């Protein structure tokens, strides 16, 4: 019974990534496919954030099965049995298709956790990230990126769209905490050992160039540092601006006071 | 079916609480309390429950009763006596006699003579019912020594009799009220004074002992409460809803989320039992509370296992709301809805997307939060500046000094100039379509002349036609 006690004041998290990889089907593959209109092969997955060395997939160094019981991927309704339950690792679904859509991912945890399932969404990305995405200093809204022809897309290589996140357990049960601590996650490498590119993310448009180096991307702690730096820099700018506006305000208030004094004797 | 406490006592053959068998000391007081009559308008059962501390309101709210019929038949014998009297219309000393009711005399009291009562009333009148003075000055020749209580009792009882028997102009209620105000309980008053005197005469040792006993009593009561609570918790844990304890059902929709969570679990799996984390449980079963000062080793351990330790708020130990499992990005900080567009705009210009992060780690989330806070403060400042500017414009117009060019040197076009208060005030902006461009170079309300002279600085600067607004303001003023 002692196992069913919550350890108060403890928050434990596990870094995961979720997203998809997509490749263009070769003409030969399209010939043999049941669906001649399908253009891409894609894999949507939930994995641990750290990539295994010498692996050709993004993330997945650790097995998440010790705390994840099931991952349910809800595909577009046009797929046969759109709800795919994956009960053992790897938690992923591979399919072919021609369009992008929103995938609902439902992660169910092992019974020891005593937690409900969580639901997240991933936009299946098939077409290459647009180069015309607005850079920080650009002012115009970019036009809808054109979908490149299959030949061009194939040249660009597989498309990766991954989101890093952390599953946070607050006040875990004693036995669940023990279970988690028995499986410490592999920490993210500082930088990619095998010179893999960083994954592109919409919130960091500048990362597009670096992600275009080719190859399978890998999550690194440098990415975290990079985002921290961006946030700090922005905050610095905001604070500077705030100081400037404060001095403006003080001046304006002096002016207002002067005017009020001028006006006062008349009334 | 209502059962009074005394019924239960008799059923269990317990001694009645009114019988002074328990102890000799508090007996007089107790019997006094028991002797008080049940006030009218309260049912017997209710009185048994609440005891003599019945709210006085009930007595007042009691239904007005019909006047009782005069009891003519069974009133017993009326005592008459032959009295002599002097007729008021005669000047000679003729003694006439008549029969008069013996009890009719308001002064009838075996202890008090009419003369002494008259003397009492004269003294009371003289000293304006200041009883201590009255008692001090009361010297009736050849009369017995009177205590203060006796004087008061006599005075009030005579007053009551007079009120009752004299014709009354007002209604019954006011008469009853007046009668009530002349109530006096001699014994009770004497006892009260004796009690106060005895309190005053306690020795320091007795006071100390009494206090010690009082503390001991409190402690015992507390222990009992604690014991009962623990017993309830245990029952609840072992029997769940079957224990019949009221809290379990109440908790279902109560704010205590801990039990709500526990309850759900019970539904899911009846065998699985969630222990409510009472302090005793934590102490006996839980792990030792995390210490503030962590060793380097434990920090490394926590980092390896992604553990964050926070000191749980001590008050929330029993009533803690469990935060369910979530993705870190679910709890991204969000600006207030009112200024959301402005914050988004400002942050977008700085290349930050506050709704989605690349690496939503704990540290980065905290950084984003402080960034949003700073932006909010900035936008607030700008709003105030806008308002002050508006006030300045209004004052200028009122001063009739529009011809004087307003000084706007401080407003240089810089990145991140976000529209301030002018937007919020919902004023008419004739050139709204010009606003579609980046806010980077947009100015909020500025003087007309200045705008003309400044327009060369930034091509896209937009004049929000201050002149039109000033006109509007003026009308309002």
Automatic annotation (TrEMBL), chain A:
Q: What is known of its domains?
A: The coiled-coil domain is required for assembly into the NuA4 complex.
Q: What does this gene product do?
A: Component of the SWR1 complex which mediates the ATP-dependent exchange of histone H2A for an H2A variant leading to transcriptional regulation of selected genes by chromatin remodeling. Component of the NuA4 histone acetyltransferase complex which is involved in transcriptional activation of selected genes principally by acetylation of nucleosomal histones H4 and H2A. The NuA4 complex is also involved in DNA repair. Yaf9 may also be required for viability in conditions in which the structural integrity of the spindle is compromised.
Q: What is this protein called?
A: Protein AF-9 homolog
Instruction: Give a single Pfam family match.
Output: YEATS
Where in the cell is the protein located?
A: Nucleus; Cytoplasm
Keyword presence, Cytoplasm: yes
Origin species: Rhizopogon vesiculosus
- Organism domain of life: Eukaryota
Keyword hit for Calcium: no
A cellular component term (GO) from this record? Swr1 complex
TrEMBL record, chain B:
InterPro entries named among the record's database cross-references: DAMP1_SANT-like, Homeodomain-like_sf, SANT/Myb, Swc4/Dmap1
Could you tell me which residues belong to the region Disordered?
1-40, 270-294, 400-477
State where the protein is found.
Nucleus
Q: Name one GO molecular function term.
A: transcription corepressor activity
Q: Name one GO biological process term.
A: DNA repair
Pfam families of this UniProt entry?
SANT_DAMP1_like
Q: Which GO terms describe its cellular component?
A: NuA4 histone acetyltransferase complex; Swr1 complex
Q: Which SMART domains match?
A: SANT (SM00717)
Instruction: Enumerate the spans annotated as Myb-like domain.
Output: 112-159
**Keywords assigned:** Chromatin regulator, Coiled coil, Nucleus, Transcription, Transcription regulation
Q: Where is the composition biased (Low complexity)?
A: 10-24, 453-469
Q: Which residues form a coiled coil?
A: 210-237
Q: Which PROSITE patterns match?
A: MYB_LIKE
Family that this chain belongs to: Belongs to the SWC4 family.
Per the entry, what this protein does is:
Component of the SWR1 complex which mediates the ATP-dependent exchange of histone H2A for the H2A variant HZT1 leading to transcriptional regulation of selected genes by chromatin remodeling. Component of the NuA4 histone acetyltransferase complex which is involved in transcriptional activation of selected genes principally by acetylation of nucleosomal histone H4 and H2A. The NuA4 complex is also involved in DNA repair.
According to UniProt, the name of this protein is: SWR1-complex protein 4
- Organism per entry: Rhizopogon vesiculosus
User: What lineage, starting at the top, does this entry show?
Assistant: Eukaryota, Fungi, Dikarya, Basidiomycota, Agaricomycotina
